[in-house]
Amino acid sequence: MPTVGVKRDALFKALGKTYSDDEFQSLCFQYGLELDEITTEKQMITKEQGENAESSVGASEDIIYRIDVPANRYDLLCLEGLVRGLLIYQGKIDLPSYKMLAPQDGFEHKLIIKSNTSTIRPYAVGAVLRNIHFTQDSYNSFIDLQDKLHQNICRKRSLVAIGTHDLDVIKGPFVYDAKPPAEIKFQPLNLDKEYTATELMDLYSGHAQLKQYLPIIKDKDVYPVIYDNNGVVLSMPPIINGHHSRITLNTKNVFIECTATDLTKAKIVLDIIVCMFSEYCDQKYTVEYCEVVQADGSSNKYPELRYREEVIQTAKTNTAIGTNESGKNIASLLSKMCLQSKPSNSGKTIKVTIPPTRHDVIHACDIFEDVAIAYGYNNIVRTLPKTNTIAQQLPLNKLSDLLRGPICQAGFTEALTFSLCSRDDVSTKLGTNIESVKAVHISNPKTLEFQVCRTTLLPGLLKTLAANKKMPLPIKIFEISDVVLKDVNSEVGARNERRICAVNCNKNAGFEVVHGLLDRIMMLLEVPWNPQRGETGYYLLESNDPAYFPQRCAEIICNGKVAGKIGVLHPNVLTQFELTNPCSCMEIEIESFV
Amino acid sequence: MGDLTERILHILSETDEIGTLQLAKLLNEDHQKIIGALNSIQANGNLVIAKPQSHKHFELSQEGVVVAEKGSHEALVYNAVQGDGIEQAELMKLPNAKIGFSKAMSAGWVVVDKSTGKQIVKRKVNKIIDQVQINLQAIANGDFSQLTDNIKQEYKKRKLLQEVTVKSFLLSKGPEFNISLQKLETDLTTEMLLLGTWKDLKFKSYNFEALGASPESGYLHPLLKVRTEFRQIFLEMGFTEMPTNNFVESSFWNFDALFQPQQHPARDAHDTFFVSDPRTTDNFPTDYLNKVKEVHSIGGYGSQGYGYDWKIEEARKNLLRTHTTAVSARMLYKVAQEKEFKPVKFFSIDRVYRNETLDATHLAEFHQVEGVIADYNLTLGDLIGVLSEFFKKLGITELEFKPAYNPYTEPSMEIFCFHKGLGKWIEIGNSGVFRPEMLLPMGLPDDVSVIAWGLSLERPTMIKYGYNNIRDLVGPKVDLQMIQNTPICRLDK
């Protein structure tokens, strides 16, 4: 969920009202926002870099509200959008109407896409904000919004990258091309000389912010680049803009370009930026289009600024929410949510106009939600579904739960360990190698503790023992839970298996203790002891396992099949798990008893 | 000890009363041992009367002991000034020099000579008598005769002396006085019953102020006790348990089936554990897969879709499920394949995985509690109503709902409750109505809605039992003593 930081006083000024923290929090709550933190720039720097950070000197102590915004509400990612949304919600202002205009006389904004770009970043859109007036605050907000969009909908610039330029220092038509890195040379933003793209990639590999974007194009043969008619580089998306066309507080006309691998998202991003900041244009809420010419010669005008209409049924809306409102009421509720709506004469349907700021509305259900929010979630009458069903437990879970009690009564304490562990935990530490273990491997673990899914419950219990050396002996613990095994016959190639594992740790290994527990469990499961080793009942069959002490290990054979293992743990295993007292253990699967 | 009790009783038999401190001196034993012996005597009946007493006396502090041994701070300063004197700065490096110097100055033992431009400390008298040391040595030997109250107060102020209170008892003969102790029986035995000796034997009185022996037992884990309670609540409400015993899941069922777009940040390796072996899944219901692909990329069922190029490769990637909603999706798909739709209520409580950075409240794996109801024309009011009843069973009556965003539910609501202990509203779960883009491709009827909610099992357990760190509750570092000490779980209590 993105978090937007706005200056409190500027926010209240724009909202035309001063709130207490609690009042504002409550307003946020109703609207689906969350006042996450109240802080200052200084506090934020201190928090990040420590008490005596140099950069905190002179940092502003104005109160900042950090507000959590739902991940699909790109129109609320800046002060301008938040204020507009809340004022409309409170009925204090009307919905603005966003208009696309032809360029002023004598101008033509054109962006020509070369076919080379198709292999790397095939889409581009553009627009121009004419006669805009920035203040320091709105300029900062303009930069912040781009950053927030880059981090969220643009997926860290991989899907869309935004470039903004001072239109008055560049000359169209602009060309979006892709060239070998060595052939791209320009002075990038915030640097004082020209570099080739190859040099830049090197230079930025240590850059705190930019290095994360390098892999998007790093290994490609050609890099995306936008030139003006004089060959000036506007930007090398998605990495950096050119220094020449940088915007400043004094910039009057802004050319915005978005290059993308996802055209839908590029259009959304462009719509959001122009809708938010056209507020500062001489002609409020207007934007000049840019003609984008594709490699095949076809051309489109951007931004789309499309107003989409959807007709919803009043009855269906009421059914979805559990209300009984008239079409007229629903329409006025929707208007509070930036959705201009009009009920039909009969009131049975409502025509809803979805503005270009609300790309999150893609289905009638999104409209229902806005009705519910405007109505107030907490005002909806609480009803109970009439659904009549008979409950049923999952037999495997029922069996597990029925066994936990008696094992506990037998003096064993229940442990709860992680189902993920290191490769060593299930292999070398138990005297085998990982290749012989049917373990599911995780491709991107952040720590060694989460390399594989456990294939046995034993390591978790042994770690629990190691962490509880202060407890008086004997320590008897157990766990009933799932292990995960690779299995080509299951749908995803792996399956869970429910098991019981129990360990006795004492001054002597005490095999008879876990053996006694096994006998008890078998009695509970109505499996008779069968020393004659027949096809029914259970018996122990001596076996060898490097995890167990020689001659002190047996397979548990249940109704003719191997159900598990029992024995005295090998001293090497004890050492690997940092245990100093002998242990005996047993582990069996219980799925065949369901 | 037996010996000591008899020696005490013997002394007491020859005198009317005697203090325990005096006894300690007389018998040359530690005072605590005398008190211990007194306790055993008293345990045998009213042999002695013990009147509590307390008195205060002075003894040397730690610093006082050092002064008694090595001399006062001022004497040490004086002794350090030899021959032609010593520079003051140098002198001040001595331990306790500051106080020693000022005392020595006011006693007139030393002077400061500034004539050379430096501050030189010189002796003013040839010889001194260190009265402080003499006095403290006397006190150490228990001789207070030379001490005036003024001196005591001054030494106390200088923290050389401290006043201590000693509690003791004044003993005199009691109604059952006897010079020897009768041996008392501690427990009733079979033998006593058989021989009938219990009638004549004297029994030791029982100490009701001690705890009993703890019973031998195993103990259930607190988190799983809470799981039992949650299961019980769902079963009471008529919910059927889903088979969630499949930790490894395909991206298709975990994300795509839920209409979660392929570029969604949750599908990033930063947030999700992907599986390298077995890496992919191929077994999907083809017809359904195509419908999912279509609704993502171009929409349908009244939806605009996300307008992107949906790739099967993304859907095939195996992962550790990030939520049990993947199982709910499978179950709903199964329900949709039945000839006739029958309303269902499902629940599950099982492990889910997030590739999170671990901290006091986040683990890479935790238990998700999930409830799902599918029926014709369920409303948001039904969802709120059922949540109210569900949380009432958990003992939570004050609930508020906040609009939220979730890719597969619309409307979506975060559930907040008022926590009396913390005195504030806290988020306890998430809920919503599944999107038509998720349900309709499965083949569920148009007018069937599905409401669902989820929460973690760990959070209510931590609140219930007062844990601040999740690692104290789950994992191999858990303290077995903690497991033994957790009370039974009644969430509504």
UniProtKB/TrEMBL annotation, chain A:
Q: Which reaction does it catalyse?
A: tRNA(Phe) + L-phenylalanine + ATP = L-phenylalanyl-tRNA(Phe) + AMP + diphosphate + H(+)
Q: What is the annotated localization of this protein?
A: Cytoplasm
Q: Give the EC number(s) under which this enzyme is classified.
A: 6.1.1.20
What top-level class of enzyme does the UniProt entry assign? Answer: ligase
Q: Which SMART domains match?
A: B3_4 (SM00873), B5 (SM00874)
Segments spanning the bilayer are: none
Q: Give one GO term, molecular function aspect.
A: phenylalanine-tRNA ligase activity
Name a GO CC annotation attached to this entry. phenylalanine-tRNA ligase complex
Kindly state the subunit structure of this protein: Tetramer of two alpha and two beta subunits.
PANTHER family (alphabetical)? PHENYLALANINE--TRNA LIGASE BETA SUBUNIT (PTHR10947:SF0), PHENYLALANYL-TRNA SYNTHETASE BETA CHAIN AND LEUCINE-RICH REPEAT-CONTAINING PROTEIN 47 (PTHR10947)
Protein name as catalogued: Phenylalanine--tRNA ligase beta subunit
TrEMBL record, chain B:
Q: Which reaction does it catalyse?
A: tRNA(Phe) + L-phenylalanine + ATP = L-phenylalanyl-tRNA(Phe) + AMP + diphosphate + H(+)
EC number(s) for this protein? 6.1.1.20
UniProt xrefs under Pfam families: PheRS_DBD1 (PF18552), PheRS_DBD2 (PF18554), PheRS_DBD3 (PF18553), tRNA-synt_2d (PF01409)
Q: Which GO terms describe its biological process?
A: phenylalanyl-tRNA aminoacylation
**What superkingdom heads the lineage?**
Eukaryota
Q: Which Gene3D superfamilies match?
A: 1.10.10.2320, 1.10.10.2330, 3.30.1370.240, Bira Bifunctional Protein, Domain 2
Q: Which cofactor does it need?
A: Mg(2+)
Q: Please provide the record's keywords in A-Z order.
A: Aminoacyl-tRNA synthetase, ATP-binding, Cytoplasm, Ligase, Magnesium, Metal-binding, Nucleotide-binding, Protein biosynthesis
> What GO cellular-component annotations does this UniProt entry give?
cytosol; phenylalanine-tRNA ligase complex
Q: Does the keyword Phosphoprotein apply?
A: no
Subunit (UniProt): Tetramer of two alpha and two beta subunits.
Show the NCBIfam families listed in the entry.
pheS, PRK04172.1
The family annotation for this protein states: Belongs to the class-II aminoacyl-tRNA synthetase family. Phe-tRNA synthetase alpha subunit type 2 subfamily.
Name it.
Answer: phenylalanine--tRNA ligase
